[in-house]
Amino acid sequence: MELTWHGHSTWRVDVGETTLLIDPFFDNPKTDTDPNELDPDHVLLTHGHADHIGHVGEFLDTHTVATPELAGYVADEYGVEHTTGMNLGGTVELGDAYVSMVRADHTNGLETDYEYSAGTPAGYVISDTKPTQVADEESETFYHAGDTSLHTEMRDVIATYLEPDAVAVPAGDHFTMGPWQAAVAVDWLDADVAFPMHYDTFPPIEIDTDDFVREVEATGSQAEPYVIDGDETFDISEGY
Q: Which residue in 219, 96, 237 sits closest to 169, CA to CA?
């Protein structure tokens, strides 16, 4: 599984022959990628804030997954043609990937004059094998936490049953977790490698990423804190 960070919370995830794009928002200082250069098979949206759906209109023909409310919104307002609505706890098979929607604690208002609900915010756990009660040591799994605060489901459900190898957690503070809470999340998630995201895009979320590294190390976590460069690709099978 290959993970490419395009800044902010935007990730491309390649699982076998399937490409997923999470939270397309390319108006950030960490990427030089033109969204028109990308051709994902599926777009995943964690919630409806503009810095997470800002470029969904560049992928009108791409199958898009979100909560039913948000899927309806991007279909009506952006003209996205193919959507699947799912909800917390559900898993869908998308080509070579299995995508589970998990809890995120955040707000989810839409900047619109119309009466829309975007449903609940979410994160995604993406794996190359179907989640089961039986652990699969050969599987590769990535957890995108979305915009969230610290919550114990990371420790009690996601780490215990979905077993991510790599995690991306918001660390910019102000609107989400800052470095120290993100580090606690990393420790709870028991992954091999952890990436900070959702930072340096706007003045309120500018951070020193060395703080994230120090905080993760201070927890005693076995995870490697990795400050990935914008547009850099990380291969789970080779990266640690």
A: 219
